[in-house]
């Protein structure tokens, strides 16, 4: 594993295309993969290859970590747990891209069914050469041993050391690869969907090529607060060129004793942290943010926040504050 200090930044790209690939096809007798559920069906998609949308280069926020992803595909939902992997660069990069809608309506462009068993996605161009305007270094590499990329693994695709961008692959059967691909998540629900896709084979035959049309329609991101920071002593700026309208916040009581905080925002929410304070004191509470690329976010907490000032921040930037005056009852 490489030195963490050498991987602490995202490197902007000029006019460089990422040709993200795995290893050349190996000669191994392909296995037989059951779909896992006879009810799985992929609906028709209108997604096509297109130019990647521009997204600002991300910055790391050590206080917040991406903990879960839901890929909404035309074949069903795939849920991925990213909380157990020490891959802050990969998670930060994906969150930045997903929160800007980068993966929305993109096609998974590669399926391998012999020797290595993966579905590869994350390239809006659907050619295998697309990526964002940055790259980042390798991290959380596995040992060099058989089946070092077990079924359910989420890993970054690359074209060489420290060339990670947006392309990733999902492993649907235990696979052995050189330990060169960052592992940053595990499929916890929906692996049978990937197996179903693999069972349909490569279009046109062969064992390495395009799968049946598989599209990521949208993504949902969940964050875990690592530490609740003290509220900022500096009031939020009155003018912010990135905010033209303040977000709206509502709290709904969810029986028996939980509260769902809904945040409606005209701008994209990413790396979101939440603090609650009253009379100069910060209330510590646990929460897990659920956000989407449409500017919606919510989280569930057991804390009654009536009378508290809620502060939302993204990275080190305070977005807005509001006092919770009432809580609605859920229908």
Description:
- With 331 residues, the chain is mostly beta strands.
- It folds into 2 domains: 166 residues, Cyclophilin-like (Cyclophilin, Beta Barrel); 88 residues, Immunoglobulin-like (Sandwich).
- The chain contains 2 helices and 21 strands.
- The protein has a 15-stranded mixed β-sheet that branches. A 4-stranded antiparallel β-sheet has the order 16-15-19-20, with no helix packed on it.
- The longest helix is centred in the first third of the chain and has 12 residues.
- The N and C termini lie far apart (51 Å).
Give the secondary structure arrangement, pairings included.
Blueprint lengths: L10 E2 L51 E10 L2 E6 L6 H12 L6 E2 L2 E5 L1 E6 L12 E2 L17 E4 L11 E4 L11 E7 L1 H9 L8 E2 L5 E11 L22 E7 L3 E7 L7 E7 L2 E3 L4 E5 L3 E6 L7 E6 L2 E7 L4 E2 L2
Parallel strand pairs: 13-21
Antiparallel strand pairs: 1-7, 2-3, 2-12, 3-10, 4-12, 5-6, 5-11, 6-9, 8-9, 8-10, 12-17, 13-14, 14-18, 15-16, 15-19, 17-18, 19-20
Keywords:
disordered N terminus; 331 residues; mainly beta; 2 domains; 15-stranded mixed beta sheet; Cyclophilin; four-stranded antiparallel beta sheet; Immunoglobulin-like; elongated; single chain
Provide a concise account of the structure shown:
The protein has 331 residues and is mainly beta.
């Amino acid at each position: 594993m490489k030195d963490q200090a050498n991987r602490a930044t995202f490197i902007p790209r000029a006019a460089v295309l990422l040709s993200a690939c795995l290893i050349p096809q190996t000669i191994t007798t392909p296995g037989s993969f059951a779909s896992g559920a006879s009810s799985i069906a992929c609906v028709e998609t209108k997604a096509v290859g297109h130019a990647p949308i521009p997204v600002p280069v991300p910055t790391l926020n050590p206080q917040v970590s991406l903990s879960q992803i839901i890929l909404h595909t035309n074949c069903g939902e795939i849920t991925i747990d990213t909380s157990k992997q020490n891959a802050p660069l990969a998670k930060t990069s994906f969150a930045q891209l997903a929160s800007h809608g980068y993966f929305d309506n993109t096609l998974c462009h590669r399926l391998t069914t012999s020797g290595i068993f993966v579905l590869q996605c994350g390239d809006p161009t659907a050619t295998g050469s697309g990526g964002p305007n940055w790259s980042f270094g390798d991290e959380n590499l596995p040992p060099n041993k058989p089946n070092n990329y077990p079924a359910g693994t989420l890993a970054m695709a690359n074209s060489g050391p420290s060339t990670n961008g947006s392309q990733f692959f999902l492993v649907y059967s235990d696979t052995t690869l050189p330990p060169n691909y960052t592992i940053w998540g595990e499929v916890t629900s929906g692996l049978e969907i990937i197996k179903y896709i693999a069972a349909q084979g490569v279009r046109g035959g062969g064992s390495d090529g395009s799968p049946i049309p598989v599209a990521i329609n949208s993504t949902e991101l969940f964050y875990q607060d690592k530490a609740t920071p003290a509220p900022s002593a500096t009031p939020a700026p009155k003018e912010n060129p990135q905010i033209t309208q303040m977000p709206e916040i509502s709290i709904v009581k969810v029986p028996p004793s939980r509260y769902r905080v809904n945040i409606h925002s005209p701008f994209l929410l990413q790396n979101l942290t939440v603090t609650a304070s009253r009379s100069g004191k910060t209330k510590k509470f646990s929460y897990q943010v659920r956000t989407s690329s449409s500017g919606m976010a919510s989280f569930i907490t057991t804390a009654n926040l009536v009378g508290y000032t809620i502060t939302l921040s993204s990275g080190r930037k305070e977005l807005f504050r509001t006092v919770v005056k009432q809580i609605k009852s859920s229908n």
